Amino acid sequence: MTLDPGEYDVSELGPELADVADVEELREILDTEKAGKDRTAAKTLIESRIEKFEGDDEEEPGDENGDAGLDLAEMSAADVGNAVRKIDDVERLRELIEREEAGDNRDSVKRLVENRIDSVAGSEESDEREQLSPEEKHPELDHPTADKQYVKALDNGAYRDMWVYCETQAGELIDVSLEMLGKARELMDEYNRQYDAAERVVAVLIGDDVAGHADTCIEHGADVVVYHEDDRLERFRHKPYTEIFCDMARGGAEPPMGVGEERTPGTDPDPADWRDYDEPRYTLFPATNNGRDLSALVQGELDSGLASDCSGLYITDVTVSNPVKTGGSGNNREFRRVLHMKRPDFSGFEYSTILCLDNPTREFHPQGASVIPGSFDVPDPDPEREGAVIEHDLELEDEWFRAEVIDFDRLDGGVDLTGNDVVVCMGRGISADPTRGMELAVELADRFESADVGVTRGIVTGSFNFDGHVEQYTAEERQIGETGQEIEPDLYVAAGVSGAVQHKVGCDESGTIVAINTDPDARIHDWSDYFIEGDLFEVLPRLIDGIAAGEIDLEAAADGGELE
Hints:
- The chain is an alpha/beta fold.
- The chain is 34% helix and 17% strand.
- The strands form 4 sheets. It has a 7-stranded parallel sheet with strand order 7-11-6-1-4-5-12, sandwiched between helices. A 5-stranded parallel sheet has the order 14-13-15-16-17.
- The chain is globular, with a radius of gyration of 27 Å.
- Mean pLDDT is 81; it is low at 56-66, 123-129, 147-152, 254-270 and 557-562.
């Protein structure tokens, strides 16, 4: 076995497993995990990798029906999930649930079997189920939540436009707000051409003094700007910001009451003067701390879904065959005008595309996403663009401001790596001597006029011990990647970095990428310009000396030659 899973976080384990194709080796890795940290997520990841190479021809335990020989008590949830994929008989699946209830009664196992039942039976069975109210279904709860499978926020709802929440900090529009406006403009221009429509980009501004940003939003792509000002909104607050956005989205009306009530589009809730629809078709939020909070609260309040931390967006029609979505097995259903939201998946293997689709019993609108800062370019402003500016009117309740901030300190701005010509990034390869590794990174960065040091998520979340003089360079604010900063330096030096997709998102636009790694099969090898196979503790000092002397040949070093 060449890989010890205990040395990696779950988010880093996926990329490390990407090149392991031997089932026996994978089983050894799984046994090592079980004997060590025994993490459920890690085991599921390894088991899915094993399943990929075992193929579908391997016989499942049991008889020809696939389930009689299953010993649920001896099986993990992942084992059960793999086994029931071959069972198409609903009655036999229900028998498995009864056996689990009589045994360990694990919710995770029952959910897997229930999901298989839904997949096999489709909506024909779900339509026959008695649709109980939340109070009837959960009588033991004081405040039962709605069963989302049967909620219909709007019947025959009318949806239009793409709404963009434009966040401000310290009174100024942040760059990601303009990036989203530019992308929204691009998307809706293509949308209107494709569907022969005239839908708009709507910018949303909420804060103490935000009306002054309306022209900037229009110049960067908005057709309409809706704003709400109140001196109590100087700082972001969950409750009032959520209530204001949702009230804007509903056209100033109360949330619809009841389930499944017939209604006429555009009449309930009452539309605002500038629009003739019920709710937005799409919503975009920045994937900042405040934007992530607001996006989840708004989409939940509007009874829809959310794809978080996206870095790619496009709109097109899609045909699906999933019986839960189509209403029955063997059917295809076309969904039109679907926002496709791309983000690196949690394993680090590849990108996932998330869709927010209707099913036979309800609708999901608006289709919403939060966008990673730096994913799109800030468009050039067009001072000649014209747009409407709408002041939103809503009486804010005192109850929404129960907590009061009486004093605070504003930080100077933290660490911004985006303006540097050179960035030196350190990964988990520094584990042999963490402090020395960071010292070398700082020393290399000091050889350039405009340079700084960044780190991977593995450094931020790892259990490394650093001496005090370098600890500042390992803080989360220096993290590069999907959940950190996205940078485009002229030169990016990655030392001891494996190259997971999440990290690639943060540095892929760099002018030249130089990777230093002892593993020639590291994923970063595939997307770096120069790859130096070697120990960073040996290579970096020679790079430092070579740059100081003005004598360095990266191309020769990457080809296996000597560092001059």
